[in-house]
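Here is one chain, start to finish.
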Amino acid sequence: MKAYKVSYHNYWGDMGKIIFADTPGKAKYQAIGSDGFDDAEFTDLGCERAEYADNHENDLQLDFDLLMIDNGWIFGLEDSRELVNKDSRNMVIKCGGVDKLLTAFEDNEVSYDYENDIFKPAEEDK
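Its structure:
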């Protein structure tokens, strides 16, 4: 199925997600009301093709996370400080996905090295 990057600027900043749909309009309608798009209206949303994600709707979450990272996506916590990007790829794999890495950070199992802008195992801080 075709993949679309649906984007929205809200009070948290710029949001984006990949939606699988037949048309851009259907992708935008699917995004409305979803996480990060709670207050969005159809006309507030941007939508562009994300051909690199076509036919990946059934991927395992880790594989899909890596696909997104490899195509320039950046993820962060709600305060937008800690960023998951290509430099964090090995930690994403080690933790089993972006959400699991961010959970490990929140649970102090992984730390963030602000000097080098990278996640690392918490035991390296000791």
